[in-house]
Amino acid sequence: MSSLAASSDVTFAHTVRAEWVKFRSLRSTWYALACLLAVGLGITALTMDHVGQEYAAMTAAERRDWDPTSLSLRSHLVAQLVIGALGTLVVTSEYATGLIRTSLIATPSRHRVLAAKLVVTAGVAVVVSQALMFAAFFIGQGLLAAQGVPNAGLGDPGVLSAVAGAGLYLSAIGLLAVGLGTITRATAGAFATLVGIVFLVPSLAPLFPSWLQWLLDFWPGAGATAIVATVPDPAYPHPWLNFAGMCLGVAAVLAAAFVVLRRRDV
Amino acid sequence: MTTIEVHGLTKRYGPQTVVDDVSFTVGSGQVTGFLGPNGAGKSTTMRMILGLAAPDRGSVTIGGRRYGDLPVPLTEVGALLDAGAVHGSRKAYEHLLALAVSNGLPRRRVHEVLARTGLEDVAGKRAGGFSLGMRQRLGIAAALLGEPEVLIFDEPVNGLDPEGIRWVRGFMRSLAREGRTVLVSSHLMNEMVETADHVIVIGRGRLLADTGIGELMRADGDGTVLLRTPDREAFALRLTAAGAAVREGSESALVVSGMTSGEIGKLAAYDGIVLTELTPQRPSLEDIFMAMTRDSLDYQGTAA
């Protein structure tokens, strides 16, 4: 009866395109991205104004560790929450509205749905995070230069990798949020978990037993964030290894997300 | 023709068996009503048919295949489980487009289903502002995207106004006339009289009936006959003498059991008695349904 029945099998590309339609067709997506840029760059501008005065009061020893690149990338601390919220909502908004059932009726292969959500989130997060961190770097250095304080150029040693690294860090947090959203199925739960991971754990770290301290070397907000520095931190001689460790952790969370999504009834 | 085959389906949530060894077949070219009180296991059964929930035992196949094995699901099965299941800030058109794209369906199908459900004018509006009736239409539009042979609707008229109910009812009938397999759940029996050709009744997760609407009414319909006549006493005696049981009805009517209206009419004609009313009383579907599901209600109210 149906002429459509003859159409060929559904491929992963179809699922990705469908997820992209869902992603771009929500106003909240664009608000969140606008908010990400506004907050990220706003915080860069505000903090730069302050560090100029700080530099003037510094001793010679302190000035040796002066890292203008890392200072201009500080806005990643807040930006990670916005990108985390965006990643969370990619999954949890479907649970909140019940749309997840419709999605899984249309695409019964659950791992394909989650993989498509990750592809879309990763694509958007990589582009937006890099744009944000590069913009923050240039605005930050410009403000430092205006105050007559030493500043960095992209060609200086370690600067390009620090700026790009900050962007990659934000992208990884976005993907972590998709995983947390899939596991908790609730916006509030996923977001609270994310805040706990990136803020609470690093600040409570000194209270942890010594046999757990190694974990902090790879933790977001702790060792893994050492990639944004251009002045080497003696605690983290190979910051990219620390970052890779965090990526493994994110991969483990995503693997758990695939497993629970497959097993649970919806 | 595509049928839905359910074999020994069982689902437990903790200690509670929500669906208990249920088997039935949903045929094509007709509307099959899926009836039961709230909490009888209708929605769970539908979710298992659609691969959303995994059965503990038993199987469901659609045209011989498991739902998860359908290569392009929307072209074979369309489903509306919950009309509220749309993101309120997404436009109706985009909602349908995402679904169409996910199954590689052409964009023109989105326009076609919007037209068929009368939603063209609101296609560019956000679904959050839709009335329940419009959301119900949007859900039906989504189910029709792939021109599927099999359609599954969970409580499609719940909360609709009379006009909406009438529209949905007519729509189900027209889908069945096109030869499609239509499964519609409801907890309202009388709703089904107008819509369904066949009914499957479940209560407390168990199959109670799987039969045609007509047979269901006849099965319990040994029925009574209500009549009115100026010669009440005389005719009542005559009927009793002929072997019928007679009792007083409301407003001086007589309620006769044990004779058909035809037999009563012949007897009256033979005796030259004037009948001002002669009406066979059929038990309503609601009565049959209540009798059937009385033992299977989770919580029963007591009569005041």
TrEMBL record, chain A:
Organism: Streptomonospora alba
Entry keyword Magnesium: no
Pfam family, one: ABC2_membrane_4
UniProt keyword terms in alphabetical order: Membrane, Transmembrane, Transmembrane helix
Protein name: ABC transporter permease
Transmembrane feature ranges: 30-48, 77-97, 118-139, 159-181, 188-208, 240-261
Statement: the UniProt record of this protein carries the keyword rRNA-binding: no
Domain of life of the native organism: Bacteria
Organism lineage: Bacteria, Bacillati, Actinomycetota, Actinomycetes, Streptosporangiales
Automatic annotation (TrEMBL), chain B:
Sample GO molecular function, one term: ATP binding
Keywords linked to the UniProt accession: ATP-binding, Nucleotide-binding, Transport
Keyword Isomerase: no
Record InterPro entries: AAA+_ATPase, ABC_transporter-like_ATP-bd, ABC_transporter-like_CS, P-loop_NTPase
Any matching Pfam family: ABC_tran
Positions of the ABC transporter domain: 4-229
Family: Belongs to the ABC transporter superfamily.
Protein name as it appears in the record: Multidrug ABC transporter ATP-binding protein
Lineage: Bacteria, Bacillati, Actinomycetota, Actinomycetes, Streptosporangiales
